Write the structure tokens for this entry.
Amino acid sequence: MNFLRSLLAILTKDVITELRTREMLSSMLVFALLTVLIFSFALDLRAATAQQTAPGVLWVTVAFAGSLGLSRSMAQEEQNRCFDGMLLAPMDRSTIYLGKAIGNFFFITLVEAVVLPVFAVLFNLPVFRAGVLLTLLLGTAGYAGVGTLFATMAVNTRAREVMLPILLLPAAVPVLMAAVRATGGFLEALPIADVAYWLRLLVVYDVIIVTVSTMLFDFVVEE
Amino acid sequence: MSRSRNWEPLLAGLAALMVALALLMVFLYAPRERTMGDVQRIFYFHVSAAWVGFFAFFVTMLASIAYLIRRERRWDVLALSSAEVGTLFITMVLITGSLWARPVWNTWWTWEPRLTISAIQWLIYLAYFMLRGAMEEPGRRARFAAVYGIIAFITVPLSFMAIRWWRTIHPDILNPNAPGAQGGFSITPRMLHTLLFSIATFTVLYLVLLRARIRLEKMSDRVAYLRQRLLIR
């Protein structure tokens, strides 16, 4: 019970901060919309090719905007040494990790909720299918899970925000590949058996990464 | 330290001998592959380097775990040294892979699963070194590097699965010698001997380089320590 209360406290804190500053959401949103727009010019997506390239465009957008938001979310904690305050609070360190990760997951999902309709309009694709939405949730969970841990490390290095994408992208290769494939499969309305591999890979990645990150977070924030 | 000096030249000598022998085996003992010709001989060192590259990364992960448990500098030194030597071998994989791909597949680069995973592994190594380079405080550097070493290594097999499935929806994971594999060829006993010997050679070579790299790191620690003492005086 105590665990859930602490978790909720961290989440509420993040949501309230975000509502007041709108720093993270606004930058992620504008960036995501720009990325989609630039892709639609750069690739000149016609109906014939859209179906093949759209999943990639969607996930590159999510990955870039997500990494922007993740570093912002941790950099905020460093201001006025908020993070030290959180560490002093009487709760388990893994709660802090899970709280921050769920918060990041929530914010990235919000951005996706706004980008997706724009995406549907620009690319003329039926993205509002249960499968696509499920893939988005699973992929975002893994990405935010590993991203929160790496962002905590990145803000404590000299390179700060620049460090995060370098650390995150190679480690996120399985999520991005599986998510792109699953999204593509659902867009083409393939039978579920053909997409199941990718969904399973996403679930496996999410479970492993979140478990290991929860265990390792202690080592990152000690001192 | 004094005991290690005794076996170190021995191991280095063994490595030199084995490399020479392996070269002879590759060029004289192993038969000429029928369709690919002599180019196929690059296969022996290519595969051996890939094995060592992967193994080195595995050692880095184990050393990282040991460091987080024990907090001893030597585990951090081992993790760093193994990663550096591993990078060397992965670089070799990428170069020999390109050299082999050019005449056989008529392209320098192809998104073949094993080549792709080597490229991703190479990028992870680079990120690992950049992370280390971005911190001054040794304790934090060792901790962060260990955390990254563990997580990044876990993602490698997952990446490999994803890359394998990328081309075909119904993969043939359990049978890597499936005829569908690009550039596949059937292996003869002599080829197998050569391959196994090359792998053994590269493993010994890895140990020699690892040992040398660890000694280098220890020396630089010693220099830093001496400099500190001089400054205090």
Chain B has one domain: 12-27+40-170+187-232. The two ends of chain B are 28 Å apart (CA to CA). The helical segments of chain B are 2-29, 42-70, 73-105, 113-133, 138-167, 189-232. The longest helix of chain B spans residues 189-232.
